[in-house]
What does this fold into?
Amino acid sequence: MTSTAIGVRKRIQINTILVRLSIFLIGLGVFSWLGVNLVRGPADFVTVAIQGLNNGALYALIALGYTLVYGIIELINFAHGDLFMLGAVFSASLLSERLHAVTSTPANWGLLIMTLILAMAFCAALNVSIERVAYRRLREAPKLAPLITAVGMSFILQFVGLHWVGSAPKNFNTVIPTTSMNVAGVTIRYSTLMIFALTIPLLLLMVFVVNKTRQGKAMRAVAQDKDAARLMGVNVNKTISFTFALGGAMAGAAGLMYEQTVGTVSYNLGFQLGLIAFTSAVMGGIGNLYGAVLGGLLIGLIQGLNDGLPIGLGQRWSQSVVFGILILLMVYRPAGLLGKATTEKV
Amino acid sequence: MSDVILEDSGVPVHLAATNNRKWAIGFTLSVIIIFAFYQYVYTSLPGEVQNFFRAWLPLTSLGEAMIFVLMALGLNIVVGYAGLLDLGYVAFWALGGYVAGWLMSGFFDSKTINFGGHPPVGLPNGIHINFWLVLIIGGMFTAVWGVIIGAPTLRLKSDYLALVTLGFGEIIPQFFVNGENVGGLNLTNGTQGITPIDDITVFGHAFGVFDLQWKFLIYSALAGLMIILSLRLRDGRLGRAWLAIREDELAASMMGVPLMRTKLSSYAVGATAGGVGGVAFATLINGVFAERFNFAISIIILAMVVLGGMGNVWGVMIGAVILSWINSTGLVQFGNVVNGALGTNINFPSFNFLIFGLLLVMMMLFRREGFIPEARTRVIMHETTDHQGAH
It folds into this structure.
């Protein structure tokens, strides 16, 4: 009896030691890589890091959509990245093509804000209708069914994007200036500042809605227990629709900002960015709002550093780095940085 | 409901057997008829009829369909039997393809190895190993990769698993795209790909680029082998363990099914089929091209499994043949006809996304069990999770 008990415990300990050792080695590798680059060119390092954080803010906005939806109906909404793509395409065709806002004038700034609101509304409406048409009927179905549906939806949205912008990436002139300023050798693009100026209020608003309003309370209740929430008089369907609307609006905002900072849209943009954003959501702990933001910024930072630093794998391995992180996370810490480990519910 | 579950597939055993026999005879007959048609009848037909067949039913797309049958059945073992969603199946296809690229071409021209292979005349350099041997090597290689990918990830919940497989499905093709300089070594020739691939040899006969009807026969034989394997596995101990896991993981593990080992074996078998398909596909298109291995392929193969009916071998076979034909030939040809008749200029292949996307959504909404379902699958796919309401 006793000997088997000891044997089991010993094996577990060796496993834990191996896991810790490999985490330590990975951490050591990352830190030495960062250290070498920092010593070689501190100003370049900061420039690249800021550019990375700029992308990270966009990832955070998209990741929020994943995390909200997963938090409430435990579905990985594969179509969310493509929703973001449609947000970018919508902004490009409205602001740059219809309204001809291609220079940085005060009037155009007004149009930009208007487009931001319209893009958010557009994506919110789209997301709500996707939920209404496809996911709602499958809420009680086996898990494979809604997942496959979401993949199908992602394809349908890509088709819409393909017919909207064509198969080749399209360039647009932007309202947000493409120039940059120089502070002590560090280059900061104005667009980066704009991104933060728009993203931070949006995130605060979002946190406020979820934590302080009545609707937010309903959301949290439904996420915890649908049946109990229904018994307490919460309209579950409406609450889920609201969650999709909120996530969609964030994706729409991210779409506009992407279009305005990068200046290029293509129909298959959503797939890659969506996956990166999902990785961010998982990194922070899926279902956790702050986790999504933290994860987005971290992933953006890592990707920016990898792509921009002189000693690094470079841009062509960018995707592999992000997915490598995803896989490592899944293996070592599936609950994410801020998430609590849960056992699978039966 | 309960009697359906108790009875293995909803139909009495002897009925299921005759059903299988009918399908098997049908499959073999169609293969033989198609082969005989192209071998003996086709060349003596008038020119217009030949053109018609060349446009609507080319042998390349038939061969491709058979390879997709093979791969869809491989994915069916993972998704349909074991109930694990794999969104990165294209990775195994790519790995198998590159095994063929490495072992059946003049790519590594600093070495000259010939092991029953068939190098092009006058170009003996490179590694040239016999096709059948490469099939086995490719299958084993991808099986190992299936275990490597599966071992750390199969502990995860189903939806996380889907994501991680998707991640691998992105990383591995990206490795092949960027692989022309891995630490100074050219492993994959980057986007240019590896071409040409050696001929297939059968008892000293070499089947090259133009012996497509023979190649079709070979690919059909591979697909047929996979059909037999799928049917046999399903009724065996391992297959029943897979189905048990698909239906209720917890209950299965309580009944003594070793979860990890069983899931891993489904991954390995599925990966093997993907690898064999990859080797076969490389010989069909006479090359390996990194950019062909994209996410859309994973989804198309998944759609094949879903359309026919997850878990049902014959349904998956039919689904694979139809979708593969639409993807390779049908859509383009149909587009040409419509554009020609109406004078329009619609890009029909771009409707691929819509067709496969809608197909997945519609099937999940209205006919989750597929068009040719098993009674057992139908019951499971319509089971609600109400009793698990305490989420």
